[in-house]
Amino acid sequence: MSPQQKALMVPEKQGKLEVGSRSIPKPGTGELLVKVQSAALNPIDYHMVFLKHYPAVPGVDIAGIVEELGEGVENFRKGDKVLAHGAFNNDKAAFQQYTLTVASFTAKKPIVIIGGSSCVGLVSELELAFQPHLNRTAVIQLARLSGFYPIIATASPSNEDLVKSYGATHFLDRHLPGNELKAAISKVTDSSIGIVYDAISLPETQLMGWGLLAENGTLILTHDVLVKEDENKGRKAARAFGSPHAPQNQELSRSSWAMVEKWLSEGTIQPNKYEVLPNGLEGIIGGLERLKNGQVSGTKLVAHPQET
After folding, report:
1. Number of H helices and number of E strands within the chain?
2. What residue spans of the chain are helical by DSSP H?
3. Is 10 within 8 Å of 17 (Cβ atoms)?
4. Which of 246-277 are b and which e, b meaning 16 or more Cβ less than 10 Å from the residue's Cβ?
5. Which of the listed residues 239, 261, 289 is the one where a domain comes to its end?
6. 229 HSE (CA, 13 A, CB side)
7. What pLDDT sits at residue 231?
8. How far apart are CA 33 and CA 299, in angstroms?
9. Among candidates 22, 48, 43, 37, which has minimal Cα distance to 118?
């Protein structure tokens, strides 16, 4: 019998999360077996829309220690502390004690990062393509890293200092009505708005973002596109899917993941504020409820699977 581990699983479609046992997978070519020390939660984890086969293990944000190398892996060794982007695949999911990671989408954790969880929350957005379960502070940092200016962020007033610390050049209250928001933006810049990233992507926020766009601008969404594109102005709306495992993203993801250790060690990318949930994998269940109910702001929730 294969060695067993604890994992948080959805036993069946629309079933409730529960902790169970499953085999520890073996790494294949180009893969690592990682002992998961920290797993971060994302809103996509409670939607569970990408789970197709059951029982299913969710979660994609991984930080841990390399336990075993698959064939062809040369840049890592057993004992390395790493962070990685998981996949919607039981053997590569985050909410378990051991998981497989693809070496190309795994980075070593810099020595200057203190603590077991501090950088795991960055995992979701270390591609330069935006993702559906995006951590919004990472969008700001990557926009800064990519040379965008100005970077105008909307958020709750309580998070103004936070978004500015990550690189937003200007802050606006997210509660402003559309006409007031547009007027406030015009005071910041007289340039046209080429890109709007809507992290919420509700019908009303999509319409608001659409109304801000200049001709030939792009609205990036985290949910299905609800606005109607207009040919005469050339505006476009697209739902982003930035998983490094998607074929269209792999080339960009390999190059960006190769830079992660350097970006973190130099402070180019800053780790998120985080809160550690109690009781290991069991604590994720309550954490996802908090995310679902809108009870988390400006903080990453992180679980330690080994404490289960």
Report:
1. 8, 14
2. 43-47, 136-145, 160-165, 178-188, 203-212, 250-257, 260-266, 281-292
3. yes
4. eeebbeebeebbebbbebbeeeebbbbebebb
5. 239
6. 13
7. 66
8. 28
9. 37
Number of domains into which the chain is organized? 2
Residue 50, domain CATH:
3.90.180.10
Q: Are the beta carbons of 216 and 186 closer than 8 angstroms?
A: no
Placement of tokens 């829309």 in the chain: 49
| CA 257 to the chain's CA centroid | 14
Q: What is the DSSP string of 193-204?
A: --EEEESS--HH
Q: Is 139 left (phi over 0), alpha (psi -120 to 50) or beta?
A: alpha
Residue ranges making up the domain that contains 115: 4-125+271-307
pLDDT band (50, 70, 90) for residue 288? very high
Round to whole Å and give the CA distance between 194 and 215.
Answer: 8
pLDDT tens for each residue of 90-138 = 999 999 999 999 999 999 988 654 444 334 444 433 333 333 344 567 7
Strand-by-strand arrangement of the 195-198 sheet: 195-198, 218-221, 236-239
4: number of Cβ within 10 Å:
13
